[in-house]
Amino acid sequence: MEINRNNIANWLKELQDTICSALETADGQSKFEEENWTREEGGGGRTRIIRNGAVLEKGGVLFSAVEGDAPDFLFKEKQHSVTETLSESTKPKFFATGVSIVLHPQSPMVPIIHMNIRYFEMDNGTRWLGGGIDLTPHYIVEGDARFFHAELKRVCDAHHKDYYSKFKKWADDYFFISHRKETRGVGGIFFDRLNSGDAMSFEKNILFWQDVGRAFAPIYCELIHRNKNKTFTELNKQWQLLRRGRYVEFNLVYDKGTKFGLETNGRVESILMSLPKTAGWEYHFTPEKNSEEEKTLSLLKKGIDW
Amino acid sequence: MEINRNNIANWLKELQDTICSALETADGQSKFEEENWTREEGGGGRTRIIRNGAVLEKGGVLFSAVEGDAPDFLFKEKQHSVTETLSESTKPKFFATGVSIVLHPQSPMVPIIHMNIRYFEMDNGTRWLGGGIDLTPHYIVEGDARFFHAELKRVCDAHHKDYYSKFKKWADDYFFISHRKETRGVGGIFFDRLNSGDAMSFEKNILFWQDVGRAFAPIYCELIHRNKNKTFTELNKQWQLLRRGRYVEFNLVYDKGTKFGLETNGRVESILMSLPKTAGWEYHFTPEKNSEEEKTLSLLKKGIDW
Asked: Going from the N-terminus, what domains does chain A have, and what CATH number goes with each?
């Protein structure tokens, strides 16, 4: 396709359709509810929420395409200066579009998953791609983590020999709950400001980025299929609440998209769709020796070569 | 008493004892568990946690007294500069001690409460007091809110005619969930860097500050007494989860103590004792017309003259 903002936004909407349809099939019970919204400063979104499914308890697959004056933080981050801001007249206009997904399953045996792919451009010619997928099992199943990473590596390797190792490390560093010294889950891939240079290279970047988006549904549907019929206990449900508590901590304390959205008066219901239906906290919870919970905690660290 | 760090810390420990004892009596079932900890850089704390009580589901009454090199943020905030930091050699030493309380009750009819009083000094002679009490009812009972504010006003008025109006407004502004455009609850009082000048005035500041600490237990025990035997429904419990979700949002996104603690490698279990045992989120929850939930939402705003 010709690379322009409309084509990219349309492709993302089709991806949203494809993913929702695959997830509804995998769930077998609930359907996505849709809400369209517009943004005062320009653009809007198509929020799709699923709840009370047979497999998925709460989650969203969100499309948005927004535009307006480029936010100051872009220049701050670039220049590593937090004191200067550009005057109104010199501010470029920006356009940003993306699909964001977080899914919280009913069963503690099915992992939480997150995916985001985004395209950004300014009228000064700057443009880039970003994205990421990461998996947060309540209980880490090593075979599933290996499958997940192997699939992401396959997608990456088809485009560049360095992508997987680079973007896997980036995910380890990004999806990290510093105050707990724990990773959020088993990681995945994360990349930002991807633009390899000239127009031809950018076309190749787009092809990679689209493949990341396309990989999401088959990977997660396979993980649902593998785990949804496993039995679980009340203890497993309690542990799920604690792991969801950590997910809440990450999203509210560290996640850049969430922070930026809340600080810039974004659409709160869409931003916080990532939070689970229920979560929990216990003072100083320590799992039993040699338990599955202890094993999972021991694997929540950076640099594991799945 | 003579004002020095040891006397102040000892007074705070006695206050912790008094409050824990009053709360155990009010609860009638659970006792506080105590954990003593030390901080590598200097000082430590005495954390007391209560859980699974008849009235109190989860909460803590925490004492700490820490010291070391004064953290950079103190100078940043003062100078309104975020780029300069002091060199190691010119950094004053600090000492800080305080009592922090958050209590999450079992019943949605009993309010959540928070109190903190703190003393801070540096070896360059700077010293000040800070504190606050705020009430977060899951369901706002106007008589209780009036009682709560009347009690705080009584404490304030005994020391300075302007304290209540000034510190009440400060609490409205501080305990505010910006992205929701909601106050956390019915507010209370909040003050920081209180030091009216010379030694004699500071003695008077201390007397006020101690009265704030002393007011906590009788106020909350009265609110427990008024509400603990009220019946409630499953809907009330669901609503409690959502209100607790907002409490989590405030603490993780806005609370300065929490943010500072997490950023400076504080004791995570003590800092996050403020989070409830369970919390919940629903996409776009809207209470029914003329319901108690809608009434509560309508009262979560700044500037109400209780």
From this structure: 5-298 (3.40.1500.10)
